[in-house]
Structures are given as C-alpha cells and as structure tokens.
From TrEMBL:
Regions that span the bilayer: 6-27
Organism field: Paenibacillus albilobatus
Positions of the GxGYxYP putative glycoside hydrolase third N-terminal domain: 328-416
Keyword line: Membrane, Transmembrane, Transmembrane helix
UniProt-listed InterPro entries: GxGYxYP_C, GxGYxYP_C_sf, GxGYxYP_N_2nd, GxGYxYP_N_3rd
Claim: Transmembrane helix is one of the keywords in the record: yes
Name of the protein: GxGYxY sequence motif-containing protein
C-alpha cells in the first residue's frame, strides 16, 4: 500500500471516529441526560420534573390504621395506630380501606397487626378481619381474632389472612369489625405476594430508564422521611394510585426486557447491568409473557434463563462481556435480594452491579479483577458488603472508597437538584481558658441511605439545636444530594455543625492504602469536596477502633489544608499535630452506644485533669442506639459544671488550634 493510500485510510478512520464520538455525545439522550465530568466523583442527573410521579415500591402494600383518609366508625387515633376501648367505644368498624386497585391478581396475604391491653378470662371474638370484593360483595378472605389468640398484653401480634385477588385492576377492600369484647389497638394492614414483589422490582427498573433522561418518578415507599425532602426542596408531586399506569405513560422510552433466571439469583444483578446499558427493564419470566402481549408488546432484549449455574459464572460473564461497556469509576455492590432502592441509580450510571464476598476465595479473586481496573485514589464502590470490615478493607487495598447506599431510594432524583450550596457560618468561638472542652459527634453520615431516610427524623426534631453537636454527612452529597445538603445548611442552628463522615470522599481505611500518591490524591479531592460542601472537620476511620498512622495524618495535612482538624478512632483522646499544621485527635469514645457513653468519659477525664491547661474530650456516638434526647440529657447534666464547656466540633478544633499555637483558621478568614 502506498503512503498516499495509507494516509487516506488513516484520515478516513479518524473522520469516522470523530463522527462516532460526535454522534455519541449529541445523541438526544446523552445530550439532555446525565452529566459526569472527569473531576466529579458521582454523576449529576438532569433537573427533576416540576411535578414528580410518586409511587410506592414497597414489596408490601401498607395501610396505616390511623390514616385519616380511611373510614373509622369507632375508636380514636392513638399514636401509631387506632384504638377502640372496651366499655367506652361503641362496637363497629375500626377500619375500612376501600377501593384498593393495585393488588396483583392471584394468591395474596393480608397481615393485620394488632394488640389487646390484657388477657381475658373467657375466650370470645375480638374482631372480624375481612377482605372482600365490593362490586360483588364476595368475601375473598376472613378471620375471627379471639381473645386467646393473643399471646401477650400490649404487644403487637400478626394475624395472617390468605386470599385470592380477582382479575387485575378489580378493586378490593379491607375491614376490621370490632366486637367491643376487649380493648383493641390496630396498627396496620400489610398485603404482600410473590406477584407484588415481581411487580415492584420491575417498576424500579422502569424508574431507572425514565429518570436517566429526566427524573420524573420518586419512590414513596413507607420510610422515615416521607415527602419531607420534596417539600423542603420545593418539588411538587402527584400520588400514583396504580403503578401500571406508569408503564403505559413511559412505554415509548423502554427499549426492551431483560428476563432474569429465578433459579440463579445473581442473574438479577447481571440483568440490571444490561438494562442500564440498553435502556431496558428487568422482568421475571411470568411478567415477560404479560408485557410481550398487548397493549405493551415489549421485545425481549435478552433472556438469561438456563445460561448459568453459579454466581461465579454470572459475574465472569459480566466481566468479560459487559464490564468493558460500563463505567469503571463506580462498581455497585447489591445483594440480588434487594430488587429496588439503589438500582435505578445504578442503571443511570451505567454501572456494573455485583455481589461478591471478599471472604470467599473464589469470589475474592473475581472481585479483585474488577477493582484492579478502577482508578486508584478516586474509584468508588457504591452499595454495601456481606461484611462491613472485610469489604471496606478490600476497597482500601485497591485505593477505593465504599459508599454505603444499598437502601438509597431516590438518588436519581436528588442528584439532579441544584448544586448551589450556601454553607452556614461557624459561630464565634469562646475565649480559650483552662476549661474542659467537650464536643459530640453523631456518626454514620457517610451513609447516603441514612442521610436520605433516618437522618430526616433527627433533623426535623422540634428541639434540634439545643445541644452543640457535629452531624456527620458525606462530602459526596455535593454530587448525590446537593439540594438536601443546601437545606441542611439553611436550616441549621448555631449549635448544628455539619462535618465529614469517614473518611472523606467515601468510607475507607487510609492506613491500608499502598500507594502514597493515590492517598494524596484522595485527600486532595476530599479537601475540594469538603470546601464546596461547607465542611471543616473530617472523621477518619481505620476500622472501628484503629488509630491513624502518621503517614496518613501527614497526607491529610499536606493535601487537605482547608480543614480545621480531624478525628480518628484510637480511643485515647490524644491530640497530635501533623506536618506542624494540622491537629488530629483520637476520639475518647469512638462509637458510643448509650447515654452513659456521653457522660462518664467526661467525668473520668476530669478526675485526671491538672487544671493548669485546657482539656479536650471528643465523643462520637452511633445514631441507632443513642438518640438525640440522650445528647440533650447529657448536655443538661454536664453544663451544670462551670468547668465544662460543650462546643460544636469546628469550634472545638479552633480551640485546639489556638492551644497548639496554630492559625485558628487555615483559610485566614478569622485571622
């Protein structure tokens, strides 16, 4: 071949490549879809629709007895249920839920949760539980609950009523008729079935397809936050009565179906991976037949039945065929038992979804293959592990960080909210004196599902702000939940400090990192994100009780200079200065589990205090066992001692800096 011919060939290839690249990025869904700049840890989904479709993707339909929308002919609302008192209330229907249209046809089960106030000397009917078809009056299932069916006093007990639902779309109703024989409390009624589980799993992937180009579906599965975040963000919504209406509404955006193999559970993760790449939905074999016919006529893009015998075969196939097509910036870890929650986000990222246990040699070897392909110092494993310690150790060995998010429900919506974040100002610190300075930290904010769900219960408490406290949050909220992060800053009191959860831009054990340059890059990115997130204090974990190695402290000092300081898990309370610029303290209590953990360590520290210099005591507690009221109680008790000053963590580290003769604010704002 002549030089001229070769040159023309090269030019043709270059032109073709340019046309392909231009076509890829100008393809409508790419142009208006997800943005993921190279320097961004997690992607930004498009701005959510002005009005979102609010759907329930719970595997069970839950009807809270105290809900005012339902019919109550007797009794009164009583906290988390509906109460009918013997001798005071008339007999009658305690609860009737009419016009339930979203129960799948076929075999179902309704579970009624109830309690009585005391045991009865004589047995008799307390309530009649019924499921009926109102159009015909036919009773589909019923049960008489008697006094002696209850095993304990004032303790919730489940009563199951099996029933067969009529054709799809036919309405049913639930009723609880109280006899007046004993005081009865009804908590809720839950309806579940295998068909329901298959349906909601499929609709999670419908959400994944739809939200990829424009977030329009929000999961309102019963949880701690309800619609609080939507209200705080100014997002409107409409409740969807029947999820199936969404399939018709968004059918044109769905390109096909991926059929998983129920006999090989991990094919669900493979199917999710393929669906994300092909804008398809994941379906069970029984749903595939329904959706292939009228009115949907969806084609089967891939059928995974009968192709694999083990999970290793599944993930080896995924690695060879689909890993080259997915992002390598993120690997999603989800047990195939979780078929909703994070999967829409995984699909939007076009990420591989796996469930591999680093404690099983064959699975670990395959997991290592995925992780060695990921960028050291910036790659993220999003989801969770079979075992926390072993999983986080594994990602740390590869210079990656874990992002706990397996039960995150709406990151595909929340990541599309405004990235404009206005950090709250740090209040003026008190004068440094020979006092005992105490600071409290609420742990687990690195966990995105905690931030989305349970954290809302704490943040919306009416007495929040009574105690100076550090609320750990994730710097990754800048990408994953920027709107919520801004809401937290805007609604914080002077006693609420937002600080970074472990260990910055994801949960990792920095002591286990092998490449110093990669570690430096991780902390430099952490510093950048923390500045944008308005966070000035970092919590560092090296296992739950591990201290921070000197090289790690020096890397933080050199690469995260905006920080006021950081904590580590040593448990001694020792304060050190790294690179002559950065204070770090080993927490006195690394993961407190009781109210006593907030009080006794302070009292013990005072016993050995020389009173000639300040003493610094920092206590971190977990939110699952230590409630906010426990912090309030501890604070009220400690502040009676005039030698004790409780301050928020950022102010705490300003005082440590002053005591260590370091600049109070490394950014110079307060110098």
């Amino acid at each position: 071949m002549s030089r001229k011919t070769i040159g023309i060939g090269i030019m043709s290839c270059a032109l073709a490549a340019a046309i392909f690249a231009a076509g890829y990025w100008m393809w409508p869904e790419k142009k208006k879809g997800i943005r993921w700049p190279e320097d961004q840890a997690l992607p930004s989904f498009p701005e959510p629709a002005a009005t979102l479709d609010l759907i329930n993707l719970s595997s069970k339909l839950v009807y809270e007895a105290e809900d005012a929308e339902y019919e109550h002919q007797t009794g009164t609302a009583d906290g988390d249920g509906w109460l009918a008192k013997a001798g005071a209330d008339k007999t009658g229907v305690m609860l009737r839920v009419p016009r339930i249209a979203d129960v799948p046809a076929g075999d179902n089960q309704a579970v009624f949760r109830m309690s009585v106030d005391r045991f009865a000397d004589e047995n008799g009917s307390v309530a009649k539980l019924e499921i009926r078809e109102p159009s015909t009056g036919a009773v589909l299932g019923s049960l008489e609950a008697t006094n002696w069916d209850f095993r304990n006093e004032n303790a919730s007990q489940e009563f199951a009523v099996p029933f067969t639902s009529p054709d799809e779309g036919r309405e049913i109703e639930i009723s609880v008729a109280w006899t007046g024989k004993s005081t009865l409390k009804l908590y809720d009624v839950q309806i579940g079935s295998p068909a329901r589980e298959e349906d909601v799993a499929m609709f999670e992937t419908v959400k994944g397809v739809v939200n990829k180009t424009k977030p329009r579906i929000y999961d309102d599965t019963r949880s701690d936050e309800g619609t609080k975040w939507l209200t705080a963000l100014g997002l409107e919504y409409r409740k969807v009565k029947d999820n199936w209406e969404l399939l018709s509404k968004y059918q044109d955006e769905i390109r096909g179906m991926i059929v998983y193999d129920p006999d090989v559970a991990d094919t669900y993760n493979l199917a999710t991976t393929i669906a994300g790449l092909e804008n398809a939905i994941v379906v069970s074999p029984s749903l595939a037949g329904k959706l292939a016919g009228d009115p949907y006529r969806l084609p089967v893009s891939e059928d995974l039945r009968g192709k694999f015998k083990t999970n290793i075969e599944v993930y080896e196939f995924l690695y060879e065929k689909y890993w080259p097509q997915t992002t390598h910036r993120v690997l999603v870890g989800l047990t195939p038992d979780i078929k909703t929650f994070l999967r829409d986000y995984a699909m939007g990222m076009e990420a591989a979804v796996v469930w591999l246990n680093p404690d099983i040699p064959e699975e670990e070897a395959l997991l290592n293959k995925f992780m060695k392909d990921m960028p050291y110092g910036s790659g993220l494993y999003v989801g969770w592990w079979p075992d926390e310690g072993k999983g986080v150790t594994k990602t740390s060995e590869f210079g990656l960080a874990t992002v706990a998010a397996d039960y995150s429900s709406n990151l595909s919506v929340l990541s599309g909210t405004s990235r404009s974040i206005a950090p709250a100002q740090i209040p003026q610190k008190p004068p440094l004196e020979n006092k005992v300075y105490v600071s409290y930290i609420m742990s687990d904010g690195d966990n995105l599902q905690y931030m989305e769900h349970y954290f809302s219960k704490l943040w919306f408490l009416p007495n929040r702000g009574e105690v100076p406290i550090g609320w750990t949050v994730s710097p990754l909220m800048v990408d994953a939940m920027p709107g919520i992060l801004d809401v937290l800053h805007r609604t914080a009191t002077e006693n609420d400090a937002l600080i970074s959860g472990p260990s910055g831009l994801g949960y990792t054990y920095p002591n286990f990192w092998k490449d110093e340059k990669g570690l430096d890059r991780f902390f430099a990115r952490t510093d950048d994100y923390m500045q944008r997130a308005g966070l000035r204090v970092l919590t560092v974990w090296n296992t739950v009780k591990g201290e921070t190695n000197p090289n790690v402290g020096n890397s933080i000092a050199a690469n995260a200079p905006s920080l006021l300081g950081f904590t580590s898990q040593g448990g001694t309370g020792a304060v050190a200065t790294y690179n002559n610029t950065m204070p770090g303290q080993e927490l006195n209590v690394v993961y407190g589990a009781s109210e006593g953990d907030l009080i006794f360590p302070v009292q013990q520290a005072i016993e050995t205090w020389d009173r000639r210099s300040p003493l610094f005591v920092c206590i971190q507690a977990n939110p699952w066992e230590v409630h906010y009221q426990s912090f309030v109680n501890a604070y009220r008790q400690l502040k009676e001692n005039k030698d004790i000053v409780v301050v928020r963590p950022d102010v705490y580290f300003e005082l440590i800096r002053e005591n260590s003769r370091l600049p109070i604010d490394p950014l110079g704002a307060k110098e």
